[in-house]
Amino acid sequence: MKHKLVFFGCLILAAQLSAQTSFKFDFGSGAVQKGYLKVDDKTLYSKGLGYGFDFVAPPQAVKFGNDPLKGDACVSDHGFYFSVDVPEGNYRVKLLLGNGSRPSLTTVRGESRRLFIEKLATQKGEFKEVVFTTNVRYVEIDSTEKVRIKDREKSKANWDHKLTIEFNDAAPSVCAMEVERVEDAVTVFLCGNSTVVDQDNEPWCGWGQMLPRFLDDKVCVANYAESGEAANSFVSAGRLKKIMTKIKPGDYVFVEFGHNDQKQKGPNDGPWLSYTTNMRRFVTETRAHGGIPVFVTSMHRRSFDSEGKVNNTLGEYPDAVRKLASDEKVALIDLNAMSKIMYEAWGPEESVKAFVHYPANTFPNQTKALADNTHFNSYGGYELAKCILLGIKKALPELAAHIRPDFNGFDPAHPDLVAAFSMPASPFIEIEKPDGN
Description:
Layout lengths: L1 H18 L2 E6 L9 E3 L11 E4 L5 E4 L8 E4 L4 E6 L3 E11 L4 E7 L3 E9 L3 E11 L25 E10 L1 E10 L3 E6 L27 E5 L7 H6 L2 H8 L5 E4 L18 H15 L3 E5 L20 H12 L2 E3 L1 H16 L4 E4 L11 E7 L1 H18 L1 H4 L37
Parallel strand pairs: 1-2, 13-14, 13-15, 15-16, 16-17
Antiparallel strand pairs: 1-12, 3-6, 4-5, 5-12, 6-11, 7-10, 7-12, 8-9, 8-11, 18-19
């Protein structure tokens, strides 16, 4: 009887935690701040507990002082994850980072490698508080329907019932974390393909997963893009319908398709027929719910002519988006035009460094070279996200007001030097190319 009571007690606790929308965690081996949940290196995630270190080996819990929050931390020399079960929605995350006995350097990502905090450094005894907002979503659209996700998505952190935070870099150190669901954040929904998606694994990266790093905590990026999707397949999978159950007046819906749409060769397909019809649907449904549609023209593939000029491999699809934006009075971010400028500034040789081009044996179990001229690595995704920010500043002044002050502008004709870029690798690697290559 006693064991049954304990079992049912665990079930009740798990149910309570899964419905809970605010948490306070105190990391480390020292005293626990009143009102906080203790987290040390033995706090491993389980459904029964509802929170804890997840996926890889936990960090080390240390103590370096008597202050409950600033006197201890969880530290490591490699990436680690912390997850907590929450209902779907937007969550504001407040972190206390730093270390009382050594310098720290922490990069923070969330869910499927969405970048939030880039290389935050503290000196010994220095602590910094950072805040960002992230999105948690479920596959359920309503009580009878689900988003039809792909097999490769079923293990993605984007679609589970957890909020997952990745702490990474040379010396990550976290002292405390507060999580609270918020209703006041402006949501930027992203609709697109593999060039936009939150890529779960190294070395792949979409621009959508880099965008949150540059926006303040009053904005939440909800990246619904998926590899291999075209405008029509995105709709038929239920992804747009799911967005429409979550959107509120004043939210944004960014739409970038084209790479996969151009492969559809039916009699009614093409840039001026089915593609335009499908893209218009995003405008109609978004506006019907009080949202703001934004078109993004597809960036070029990495293809150069003999003179170092970019070949147009997308045909008239970017022009179709430009015309539809004009006809429907939709804000336009011309990533196609900016990517041409940027690729030509790099040139055929330097541009390789922005794409997934790696010799054999760069990664474990990679027996063949990777040479992908469509998909980006972290550097390429980062630079494209900066192009998106330029487009936001030009076309969306209200959203531009939420760009973080450390974004000092960007010129596609003078992209950041790859030698000056550094991003710690996440623990998980995938050699298989994303759908839609």
